[in-house]
Amino acid sequence: MFGLTRKTEVAAPEAPVLDLSGPRLRRAMDHLVESAEPTGGVDRYVTALWLKASLFEEMLGKGQVAELTETEFLDLCAFVTPARRKVGALMAETGFEEMRARLTALLEGWCDTSTADARLAAFVDGFPQDKAHRWLRDLGAEVLHFTAADRYPLMTRWVWDSKVGTGVVREIWFADDVSEARIDAPADFVTFAALAEELQGFLRAEGIYRDLPFFTDLLMAHVYAAYINDRGGEFMRAEFATAADPMLHTRRMLGLDAVDTETGRTRLKLVDGTAHTLGALGATDPQEAM
Predict the structure, then answer these.
(1) Most C-beta atoms within 10 A of its C-beta, which of 27, 62, 106, 240?
(2) Cβ–Cβ contacts within 10 Å for residue 36, how many?
(3) Where are the domains of the chain?
């Protein structure tokens, strides 16, 4: 026994303590249920998110990413709000083959969530590190989440951006003045997983037990939609133009407003300014559920 080599175990990073506000969450949940009722109820939105995830898994999961076509990729990007105005220009700059290679690397070893941060960082680092390309972090985060929602929480910047201290985490933080609260939580997999676990625990206490990843997405999007309505800056208001529909911003955060169901035209703009028309996904898109 003395001659055996011991395997060194690397301790998993410790999850931060997230001091979330129960009353804030409950108010957000009540407002979500009330707001969704005129357009079919919360279940309709959850179904749309389930369909979105099914599309991502079909196109990208189980090694299918290696066979992804540019049309299929643009179809998927139509459902990723931050990508809609930027991806056309990026494809003109770099070409699709480069993007497919980086998506393949992002999803390689997807079963091992301990490498999620490294793979997502590598995906982003492969592109220019400037303001014009920050949306690629959100694209990578949505690819991971909607391809394997049971393993990857939604890790977009609007959920939590530790560099500027904004996102859903701040909006549901337990503090008298959330704008002044100091939140020491890195924007990494462990933090996002801890947040998802906390929110799913809240949803279970509310009597919700199925499709928890998508209920969580919907609740978070509605929380941030309220921020856009109440305290969003001029740029946000321009991107998410105000409307009487209380679910409009919530849908847009999740990319569920992607397609004109009559024409097939999407909100995604190609490099020449024309609208991308849904191709590979056809009539099976998530907006069919809306």
Answers:
(1) 106
(2) 21
(3) 22-289
Return the number of other C-beta atoms located less than 10 Å from residue 105's C-beta.
14
Beta partners for residue 275, in sequence order: 269
- In the structure, what pLDDT confidence band is assigned to residue 234 with cuts at 50, 70 and 90? very low
Sign for the pseudo-dihedral over CA of 235, 285, 86, 126: positive
What the block records as the tokens of 117 is: 């941060």
- CA dist 45 and 52 (Å) reads 11
Structure tokens at 126: 């492969």
- 267's enclosing H/E stretch is strand 265-269
- Could you give the CA distance from residue 90 to residue 73 in angstroms, rounded to a whole number? 13
Q: What are phi and psi of 55, to 5 degrees?
A: -65, -45
Helices (H), the chain: 22-36, 42-60, 70-77, 87-94, 96-107, 116-125, 135-147, 168-171, 189-205, 212-231, 234-239, 248-253
Asked if 137 and 95 count as a contact pair (C-beta separation under 8 A), the reply is no
CB neighbour class for 39 (10 Å; exposed up to 12, middle 13-18, buried from 19): middle
Q: Which position has the token pair 């066979």?
A: 67
Compute the distance between CA of residue 269 and CA of residue 138 in angstroms, rounded to an integer: 17
* pTM (two decimals): 0.88
The pLDDT confidence band at residue 65, using thresholds 50, 70 and 90, is very high
**For residue 286, with 0-12 CB atoms within 10 Å meaning exposed, 13-18 middle and 19 or more buried, which class applies?**
buried
Token pair belonging to 191: 């933090």
**How far is C-alpha 275 from the geometric centre of its chain's CA atoms?**
22
| CB 31 within 8 Å of CB 201 | no
**∠ CA 34-36-38, rounded to 5°:** 90
Is the CB of residue 228 less than 8 Å from the CB of residue 249? yes
